[in-house]
């Protein structure tokens, strides 16, 4: 799998089909943190339940673990919603003045979203006006549409195009962690009871110690899962809250909306439909070739070679030059 680097710090593989952040190696660590305890669980706990009770427990948890790993990898190599860059403002032709830009466009550009004023900030790195909820990631060095956060565990940004993958990954991982912890602890409890039933003189504490000696790997899984279950399940509940209130992690931490001041809020059901069930739009461009695939509809931040920028043009620029985006 050859690697290609385009603007920003993101990396492109397989001729643009896969995109990752600059710290993709952290994803390998996350894969190991899921795969290693999962393998131990199947060898020590899953097989124990299959021999004594039913194979259904092992099969269901195995499918959940596989789904968690697949979703992790898909999220790590997905386009989060990278906005196409413009040329430097000095290289852009201004159709209004029929000259090339001599100075940077205004820092802010105000628009209304459902009656709420929004200031679109001009990104001096990407040379575009950031759409509402778009943030420039300091790690990837790209503007991300509906930016949620840059995940250090996955090594990629989480944005409009891959949030549903991230949410599914977090949900499956939290459920798997809780299920593995519960079944491993239950196995040790059942072994403790069997030891006590076989020897009426042994106490509960001594029986538990003996059970831990018989299944040391199960005890290790219990300790490991107990240490991280608060993080995985807590993260799952936190993102459930964000989805129901139609907020991003970035907005919630910054306190962007106070009270009922969120113009994107449509009620819990409507928010879930918008965020998790809406069709994922195609990419704006091919990151391997830079060719525009799906132009933006708003001329305020349309790329200069996009048809969406046409309404801004009052006169044709010189041959081979592009129409500038946004207000001058």
TrEMBL record:
Sequence intervals crossing the membrane: 24-43, 55-77, 164-186, 217-238
Reactions performed catalytically: L-cysteinyl-[protein] + hexadecanoyl-CoA = S-hexadecanoyl-L-cysteinyl-[protein] + CoA
Disordered: annotated span: 305-328
Record's keyword annotation contains Transmembrane: yes
A GO cellular component annotation in the UniProt record: Golgi apparatus
Swiss-Prot/TrEMBL keywords: Acyltransferase, Lipoprotein, Membrane, Palmitate, Transferase, Transmembrane, Transmembrane helix
Domain Palmitoyltransferase DHHC: 119-254
Domain of life, per lineage: Eukaryota
Membrane-topology annotation of the record: Multi-pass membrane protein
PROSITE patterns per the UniProt record, alphabetical: DHHC
InterPro entries assigned: Palmitoyltrfase_DHHC, PFA4/ZDH16/20/ERF2-like
EC number, as in UniProt: 2.3.1.225
EC top class, as a word: transferase
Location in the cell: Endomembrane system
Single GO biological process annotation from the record: protein targeting to membrane
Annotated signal sequence range: none
GO terms for MF: protein-cysteine S-palmitoyltransferase activity
Entry text on domains: The DHHC domain is required for palmitoyltransferase activity.
Protein family per UniProt: Belongs to the DHHC palmitoyltransferase family.
Protein name: Palmitoyltransferase
Source organism of the structure: Alexandrium monilatum
């Amino acid at each position: 799998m050859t690697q290609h680097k385009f603007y920003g710090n993101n990396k492109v593989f397989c001729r643009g089909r896969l995109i990752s952040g600059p710290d993709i190696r952290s994803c390998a660590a996350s894969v190991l943190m899921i795969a290693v305890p999962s393998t131990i669980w199947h060898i020590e706990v899953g097989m124990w339940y299959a021999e004594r009770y039913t194979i259904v427990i092992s099969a269901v948890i195995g499918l959940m673990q596989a789904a968690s790993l697949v979703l992790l990898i898909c999220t790590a190599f997905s386009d989060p919603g990278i906005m196409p860059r413009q040329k430097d403002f000095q290289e852009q032709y201004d159709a209004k003045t029929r000259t090339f830009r001599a100075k940077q466009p205004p820092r802010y550009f105000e628009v209304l979203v459902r009656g709420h004023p929004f200031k679109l900030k001009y990104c001096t790195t990407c040379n575009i006006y950031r759409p509402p909820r778009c943030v420039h990631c300091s790690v990837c060095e790209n503007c991300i549409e509906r930016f949620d956060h840059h995940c250090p565990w996955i090594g990629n940004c989480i944005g409009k195009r891959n949030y549903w993958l991230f949410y599914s990954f977090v949900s499956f991982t939290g459920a798997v962690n809780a299920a593995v912890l519960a079944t491993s602890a239950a196995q040790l409890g059942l072994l403790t009871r069997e030891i006590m039933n076989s020897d009426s003189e042994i106490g509960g504490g001594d029986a538990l110690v003996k059970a831990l000696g018989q299944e040391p790997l199960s005890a290790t899984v219990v300790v490991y899962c107990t240490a991280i279950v608060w993080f995985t399940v807590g993260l799952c509940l936190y993102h459930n809250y964000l989805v129901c209130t139609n907020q991003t992690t970035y907005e919630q931490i910054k306190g962007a909306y106070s009270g009922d001041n969120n113009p994107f809020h449509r009620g819990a059901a409507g928010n879930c439909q918008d965020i998790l069930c809406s069709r994922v739009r195609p990419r704006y461009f091919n990151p391997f070739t830079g060719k525009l695939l799906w132009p933006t509809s708003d001329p305020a931040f349309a790329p200069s070679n996009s048809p969406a920028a046409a309404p801004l043009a009052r006169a044709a620029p010189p041959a081979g030059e592009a129409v500038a985006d946004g207000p001058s």
